[in-house]
Amino acid sequence: MEHILVTGGTGFIGSHTVVELLRSGYDVTILDNLSNSEASVVDAIEQIAGRRPALIVADLLDAAAVNAAFDGAHFDGVIHFAGLKAVGESVQKPWWYYHNNLTGSLNLFDAMAKHGCKTIVFSSSATVYGPDNPSPYVETMSTSATNPYGWTKVMIERILTDYTAAHPDFCAVLLRYFNPIGAHPSGLLGDDPNGIPNNLMPYVARVAAGQLPKLTVFGDDYDTPDGTCLRDYLHVVDLAKGHLSALEYAKDHTGAEAFNLGTGNGISVLELINAFMKENHIDVPYVIGPRRDGDLPGFWANADKAKEVLGWTAKLDVNDMCRDAWTFIQTPKD
Ligand code: NAD
Ligand code: UDP
DSSP letters of 139-195? Predict the structure, then answer.
């Protein structure tokens, strides 16, 4: 039995990952400051997995609290989800993003080093490929960013790469997520952002549920087959399982290694809306609006490395993603 510390484990991707960890026999402790999630997520996790993770409500910016978590238990590894993730907000509040994401991560890495914990799986992002690389993105491409959020991902990857170079017994698996959507099929866990969603799928689901009047499609004049942007959407349950593959990999590897977690397919905004309407037999009213600042026309993964090295591939399709997102929004929340 291994014990994994999951920072940000009550969040969207973290909660789905905790379910998969518990189901696979890991013990789990979540550390989260609940700035973008609810403690009640732990009840939903227990309901699905049949086992309850421990929850430490603490902020990664509180170095003493992070060390206390390590003093209280032996962790065989850490999966590090905790961070702020809204691109637009990061442009408005860069210091806050750098402080939360970088200082928080450094406090975590410091506590790991002090307590002899030598395995980390880090939530990176396809955003690290920057604006200039052609798709499909391959792990060997250069990294850069166009906003403070993206730079925090580039910088944390760099910090972990430098740390593993200096400490050759340390393993850092850098998982570059593409666009995770969908929800747990039980309807108990999903993406439930506070306020008006920034991301496409939660927006579509709220329009379908009548909670928002209509969706605005941000631009239909891109150089893509139907003029709307292409993204590599993957089901959050598939993504969660990728973290278990990463932990397995870390058992007999050291060093820092990056992996794309995506399907390898680009889907347009209009294709996603149409799939949602068809799968769920529900209308999603939309209008075409102007482009959103900073949006790239299209990017998707080359997912070969994750398949060959981690033995991971995405199994669920866009219809599964649409069905489960719809089930989630229709499930009453306490
Ligand atoms: P989320 O906001 O649902 O989860 C993040 C969790 O971290 C939240 O529960 C929040 O309360 C917690 N947190 C934030 N700052 C903290 C701090 N200082 N101390 C303790 N807890 C803190 O986000 P998510 O969608 O589950 O994303 C998880 C990770 O994956 C993030 O690092 C994000 O940048 C990365 N990522 C997400 C996406 C995506 O589309 N959702 C894509 C690529 C990468
Ligand atoms: N999008 C849209 N309307 C919305 C939200 C998003 O048309 O209300 C588009 C957006 O322009 C992008 C795609 O949907 O082309 C995915 O956006 P999201 O914010 O979910 O992911 P990201 O842009 O971060 O990849």
Answer: TTS--B-SSHHHHHHHHHHHHHHHHHHH-TT-EEEEEEE-EEE---TTSSS----SS
Whether residue 80 has its Cβ less than 6 Å from ligand 2? no
Nearest to 200 by CA among 262, 303, 123, 289: 289
Low-confidence ranges of the chain (pLDDT < 50): none
Please give the distance, rounded to the nearest whole angstrom, from the Cα atom of residue 200 to the centre of ligand 2.
5
Ligand 2 proximity of 265 Cβ (cutoff 6 Å): no
Q: Of the residues 231, 236, 267, 321, which should be mutated to test ligand 2's pocket, given the most ligand atoms within 8 Å of the CB?
A: 231
Q: Phi/psi at 155 (nearest 5 deg)? A: -70, -40
- Among 15, 31, 120, 123, say which to mutate for ligand 1: greatest number of ligand atoms within 8 Å of CB: 123
203 given a catalytic annotation: no
**What CATH superfamily is the domain 3-181+233-262+301-314?**
NAD(P)-binding Rossmann-like Domain (3.40.50.720)
Instruction: Return the domain boundaries, the chain.
Output: 3-181+233-262+301-314
Measured in Å, residue 32 CA sits from the centre of ligand 1 at 10
Q: What is the pLDDT of residue 261?
A: 98
Tell me what pLDDT residue 15 has. Answer: 98
Q: What is the pTM of this model?
A: 0.98
Print burial letters for 127-160: b (CB count within 10 Å at least 16), e (below 16): bbbbeebebbbebebebebebbbbbbbbbbbebb
Looking up tokens 């631009």, which residue turns up? 219
Q: Contact 45/22 with Cβ under 8 angstroms?
A: yes
CA angle 88, 327, 202 (to 5 degrees): 10
Helix (H, G, I), strand (E, B) or coil at 206: helix
Distance CA 179, CA 125 (A): 9
Q: Which residue CA neighbors atom 29 of ligand 1 most closely?
A: 81
